[in-house]
Design goal:
This protein is an alpha/beta fold. Helix content is 40%, strand content 17%. It has 26 helices and 27 strands. Helix 8 crosses helix 14, helix 11 crosses helix 20 and helix 12 packs antiparallel against helix 13.
Length: 780
């Protein structure tokens, strides 16, 4: 018997949802609140803030929520809620408003308290009945309470989710400070001086920065990776006894190599093996006394909670808010309290108290000195970050040389994060005993012999630099195969790392095809996706896309704010991406766009007409700003000028329009924390894989690699970094439009439309979204 489908636009009718933020505030909470409100209203439910304020779609708080840090509905650690009397009073307030669905955004303490509230709900109702504060009918209508949690915590200290709301934004604040501080003490190098030692700096200093993380070292660890710090102290893995001498030796060694800048990151909960706190001041006194270095200590404090939310936190909050509402409305009296988590690229529901217990288990493991276990309990991502840091923390290259030469190149358009990938690849290669070679200007440089050794010291401060220090071009190797094969032999290159966009992918495939004719090309090859377009097959994300997304989002914020205090206005903004609509879609989610036009989702004049009429009706209410995003190649006829003219004409008397083509600013800027960390891990993983592959391919005194799995794309698939043969990815590639045939983010398109107040079905998967696109294009 087939189940009757539920209309999502009516599943909330007759129900009421309350949303509250509790505990420490975190950037991105407002995006979660906004999504909860709008999706709740979309389903027909009444939605309240926990100030007994009935929300509407056009409530003024919702119009700029995405770009605001903190929480507009307020947050506190309420002592009254710790008492039975306080919880009874809270229950009475909910019953009087008919609220039986509670969405709690906070840390593990807040979520544990909410679960306790739910557990004793029946008892609280009986207390209220006996006291005559509610009627029997009110008690019957409110017989059970559903609770769904979303984790808002900058510390990323909750087990069960890859990231908590606010963590990415906090990393942005930390890295901004690190960049600002370290620029007072360093000189940047370019491809013209790769062999120089970093001996010329404005000052000789050591910087010690304390970041938040009383029980979790995530912020400190990722900040250390993203900034190339010399040492990090985290509570999960205290340093070995005698760390003071070890630290001083490392810093002194760095200075002897010509470095005059040292960075040490300390989590506020850092401790030694005996549980004694390790503080900023303690480390400063140690370094000053033993080494005589000019040392500065900075405690970042609550600056980490402030500022505008990153694009990731806005999207994360929005996705979690949508999932939380659906979980509440689908719950039954028997459904246990759940928490909405991020697993890979999927929003999932997990049992709340199981996640809370694992989080407590981490703290217990640290208290009992089981530090290796504490790291593992934090999850695979945390463990991978820690292992990558340990690899890169060495300062002395391997004494035993491998006689292996690994070359690196950048291909395609430059993007933020490329240099971070090069830096980690170079340093891991040197630690493996390999000779590392830099190829300048992509495949052209390889054909022309523009190749030179690249040293440990020469990439010292590359992590935070945007663009491509190696130089990059879009040229493909097919027309230069003879010269390329000769130079591979001349420079005795045994393996190749290609960092770039779609050209890097196609170039890798051409090299594999060329193996049939040129034996010199039979070497292991790995492609690291790095492009703002996020269009490389084999990876959910590309290095550089997060930085571009943040640039677009912050620009949209500024553009919308530029019209504050003026009449109603709609902005038409064109984004990059080629034929890939990733940037337009995700920026639309992050910036609160009314529509985002992309190639993957075909549209015609009828769709445009619906969008214009929809926006005109919205702008007749209290809404004063509209935002329309258009991917640069979404449609050759419906250009940015066409859409601008259409909205201008149809909006006469209601709003006026402005247009902006963002252009190459999307490729510039310093890398985001995510791109620095992602690039660092990808570079390290690539060289370690090549090291193993070279051992497999070593036969009869030489390297010979001609199997499909000897030329791979290193990509992120859900939550893992995986190697996929280039040849295997051809069937999933639309070469004409330079995009993968399946793209995970298409399933987020309905959320964008619902948050913009369109009445559409929410029940759509990535597969069905893709199938609908293919059918609409008439290709099946």
């Amino acid at each position: 018997m087939q189940a009757t489908p539920v209309d999502p636009t009516t599943m909330g009718v007759g129900k009421a949802i309350a949303v509250l933020t509790s505990g420490g505030d975190a950037q991105g909470m407002n995006a979660a609140v906004r999504a909860t409100v709008r999706v709740g209203i979309y389903t027909g439910a009444k939605v309240y803030f926990v100030h007994e304020v009935r929300m509407t779609y056009t409530h003024k708080a919702g119009q700029f929520m995405c770009l605001l840090g903190g929480t507009v509905i307020g947050s506190a650690r309420c002592k009254d809620f710790h008492t039975k009397e306080g919880r009874t009073k809270a229950a009475c307030n909910l019953v009087k408003l008919g609220i039986t669905n509670l969405c709690v955004i906070g840390g593990d303490g807040s979520l544990t308290g909410a679960n306790e509230f739910r557990t004793e709900w029946s008892e609280l109702l009986q207390i209220l009945l006996k006291a005559g504060k509610i009627t029997a009918e009110e008690a019957r209508r409110s017989s059970h309470l559903n609770i769904v949690g979303m984790v808002g915590s900058i510390d990323n200290d909750f087990c069960g989710t890859d990231m908590t709301i606010g963590t990415d934004s906090a990393l942005h604040r930390i890295i901004e400070v690190v960049d600002a501080i370290t620029t007072t003490a360093q000189r940047y190098k370019t491809k013209s001086n790769l062999s120089l030692s970093p001996s010329l700096y404005s000052h000789q200093r050591a910087f010690i920065l304390e970041v938040m993380g009383r029980h979790c070292g995530y912020l400190a660890l990722v900040s250390a990776l993203a900034s190339g710090a010399d040492w990090v102290f985290i509570p999960e893995m205290p340093p070995d006894d005698g760390w003071e001498d070890h630290l001083c030796r490392r810093l002194a060694n760095q200075r002897s190599l010509g470095y005059r800048l040292n960075v040490i990151i300390v989590a506020e909960g850092a401790m030694d093996r005996s549980g004694k706190p390790i503080t900023c001041e303690m480390i400063k006194n140690l370094v000053t006394k033993k080494l005589g270095f000019d040392t500065r200590a900075t405690i970042l404090g609550h600056v980490q909670r402030g500022g505008t939310p990153s694009a990731f936190d806005r999207i994360l909050g929005s996705r979690m808010g949508v999932e939380a509402v659906m979980a509440l409305l689908e719950a039954t009296p028997e459904t246990p309290a759940c928490v909405v988590s991020l697993s890979g690229n999927q929003a999932v529901r997990l049992p709340l108290m199981e996640c809370v217990q694992v989080t407590k288990d981490v703290t217990k493991a640290m208290t009992e000195g089981r530090f290796e276990e504490a790291v593992k309990l934090r999850g695979k991502s945390f463990e991978n970050n820690w292992n990558t840091y340990k690899l890169l923390a060495h300062v002395n290259p391997a004494e035993v040389k491998s006689n292996i030469n690994i070359a690196l190149m950048n291909v395609g358009a430059p993007c933020a994060g490329m240099n971070a990938a090069v830096r980690s690849a170079v340093r891991i290669g040197i630690l493996q005993g390999h000779h590392m070679l830099a190829i300048h200007d992509g495949f052209e440089g390889l054909a022309h012999g523009n190749i030179e050794p690249i040293s440990w010291a020469s990439v010292g401060n590359w992590t935070g630099q945007g663009g491509s220090n190696l130089g990059t071009k879009r040229s493909l190797p097919a027309s230069m195969m003879e010269e390329i094969s000769l130079n591979i032999a001349k420079f005795n290159i045994h393996a190749l790392v290609i960092i770039g966009g779609f050209e890097a992918f196609v170039g890798g495939l051409e090299l594999v095809t060329g193996r049939e004719k040129y034996e010199e090309l039979c070497i292991p090859i790995v492609v690291i996706p790095a492009t703002v377009s996020n269009n490389v097959p084999g990876s959910d994300f590309s290095v550089g896309a997060d930085t571009a997304l943040n640039t677009i989002t912050s620009t949209c914020d500024r553009i919308k704010q530029s019209a504050a205090g003026t009449k109603r206005r709609v902005f038409i903004i064109e984004t990059m991406g080629g034929y890939c609509g990733y940037l337009a879609t995700m920026a639309g989610l992050a910036a609160g766009a009314d529509a985002a036009y992309i190639y993957e989702e075909p549209f015609g004049i009828h769709d445009l007409e619906i969008n214009v009429e929809h926006l005109v009706e919205k702008m007749k209410t209290t809404v004063k700003r509209g935002l329309i995003l258009r991917n640069e190649n979404c449609n050759s006829n419906y250009t940015t000028d066409f859409i601008f003219n259409l909205y201008t004409e149809e909006g006469k008397g209601v709003f006026d329009c402005r247009k902006n083509v963002l252009g190459h600013m999307q490729q510039g800027g310093t890398p985001s924390p995510f791109d620095r960390n992602f690039g660092t891990k990808m570079g390290a993983k690539a060289v370690l894989w090549l090291t193993d592959k070279l051992k497999e391919c070593y036969r009869h005194g030489r390297i010979f690699a001609n199997t499909p799995d000897s030329a791979c794309v290193l990509g992120m698939r859900k939550r893992a970094l995986v190697f996929q043969p280039l040849a295997d990815l051809k069937s999933n590639t639309d070469f004409e439009h330079r995009i993968p045939k399946t793209q995970w983010w298409l399933k987020l398109r309905p959320i964008l439309k619902i948050l913009a107040k369109y009445k559409i079905s929410l029940d759509i998967s990535e597969k069905t979204a893709l199938e609908s696109v293919i059918k609409k294009r008439g290709t099946v």
